[in-house]
Amino acid sequence: MSDTVLLAHGSGGRLSHDLVRRYFCPAFDNPLLAEMNDAATFALSGADGDRLAFTTDSYVVSPIFFPGGDIGHLAVCGTVNDLATSGARPLYLSAAFVLEEGLPLADLERVVQSMRRSAEDAGVSIVTGDTKVVHRGAADRLFITTAGVGVIPAGVYIGGSNARPGDAIILSGTIGDHGIAVLSQREGLSFSSPVVSDCAPLNGLVSAMLEASVDVRVLRDPTRGGLATTLNEIAAQSGVGIIIEEAAIPVSDGVRGACEMLGFDPLYIANEGKMVAIVAAEAAEAVLSSMHDHPYGKQASIIGRVRAEHPGRVVMKTRLGTSRIVDMLSGELLPRIC
Amino acid sequence: MSDTVLLAHGSGGRLSHDLVRRYFCPAFDNPLLAEMNDAATFALSGADGDRLAFTTDSYVVSPIFFPGGDIGHLAVCGTVNDLATSGARPLYLSAAFVLEEGLPLADLERVVQSMRRSAEDAGVSIVTGDTKVVHRGAADRLFITTAGVGVIPAGVYIGGSNARPGDAIILSGTIGDHGIAVLSQREGLSFSSPVVSDCAPLNGLVSAMLEASVDVRVLRDPTRGGLATTLNEIAAQSGVGIIIEEAAIPVSDGVRGACEMLGFDPLYIANEGKMVAIVAAEAAEAVLSSMHDHPYGKQASIIGRVRAEHPGRVVMKTRLGTSRIVDMLSGELLPRIC
Q1: Which of A35, A170, A219, B329 has its CA 20 to 30 A from that of B216?
Q2: Would you say the pTM of this structure is higher than 0.95?
Q3: Using N-to-C axis directions, what is the helix angle for B105-122 and B71-84, rounded to 10°?
Q4: What is this model's ipTM?
Q5: A3 touches chain B (CB under 8 A)
């Protein structure tokens, strides 16, 4: 047990969860936080009305510009997507900037314009904000923290603890693109098939899915820690087992090649434009079809199912026909990926 | 005109305003942001219901522990107070942490426990959050960004553009305590009268003021840039002149002595537990009396009035009987004070 903060505390994996469970949850103890979803949800005025969703994330990605996006695009999409995972329609965002003295204002302008475009794409307004400046060397260029507020329509109850045995697990597209794109930019790597971040606002996709069926039970965007960590979180929260098929999980040629070269498992690489949905079996085809009609869900597929056996455990049937346990990310794979 | 970010861009004064006006407002252009209040306010479901307030701030104070508080206490109180300036009852906070690799976990625990106590004092819940970790040297120990959501009761409309000629200007207590306390800790200064930060949640005080009168028109907490900058903001937003009396502005002996020694003007020093209120003249005594009954308003006083002459300008009658123009802070006085 370390007595200082380690990079792995920010991995999104096991040590991140330990930090939250040991320090934040006991201190801030309240039922909304205890649900451990990406957004807190609550009713404001009586039980019959719409509920609100509220979420935040800090973005410290390095470098701040990368193939397919930048820290500003990420900061808007990340918070929009966390709201969308609660079934909320994202409405308003805040944006707080920590700037390093000496940052070129042209870089700030580029990031801000990117945020503007992303907010327009997502149909949200950035309505409040803050700017702090620290001495040269006291921060690395630019950190952005966004928070967001959205409205959850009456009758929609989505959360990590709702998965039930028999449910289908749907993934909206290829995995690993964001993490590999940032890594390639940071390390100056180039691959035969270039990899571009998948960073995108998924609230439109989620709306289409919820129109297709009310039986969407869990939504989560597999960011830090990747698909493997997200599925482990859901298995633990719902007290169910999860079984997935390796052959059903889409991976682009570029990501596959990069992962083979670097010794990474795409299951653990961050995504910023993908959604995992757990859906009642009888609703799966309708939801899948609605996703295929949406630009961000064209490669959606059913990758597995929820089962009663082995609660809390995620198992993958490999292409070779064997089974292996897929654990939560331990240690830190790619620091400062988001 | 610099082409890089300067420390003064984070001062809360003239260059901060220029940065917001030049980069953020045009890009994120929307009517809520354009109001330029500390919290954005909006109705969610029809015009008759309560409105919501939403705000955010990043905290980068150095050192993270100082007399009277720490970065966690500040992060909770600052966002609670920004909500209170809209007349909102603060309900829910988010907390996003950027941690430097190597930060002692004991320091994190101390900060988190302080946030817990501050949230309890303010009657708010921290319901959602995030943790990122950056390499050693890529951030200075610990930055916290809080966002907050609150409910504004029907009939309350408070904003920086509501000041009218004849209104009274009330200040809730002494100025300069927070800035001088942080500076003394950072620079290892000691004064004959020790100075302790005034950092406190002011939502209870604001509730008492709003109960005393519905004619509270503007509320603002004079943080970065100090009382001088806050009054200039209000004068500009409302298109009015402001005249204040130096002799009516409470300053503690410790702050006065430190400012004389260091060559600072207390009007420009940050506060974290003070409120400026602009109130209809006929309501001033009732509001003042309600403040005197509250622990955080015991030294409240009427420090001046709003006038039609010299719109956009703040003038102070000095103890010597002369008048001087009090401008917004230009340059940077005390970096990383909050």
Answers
A1: B329
A2: yes
A3: 30
A4: 0.97
A5: yes
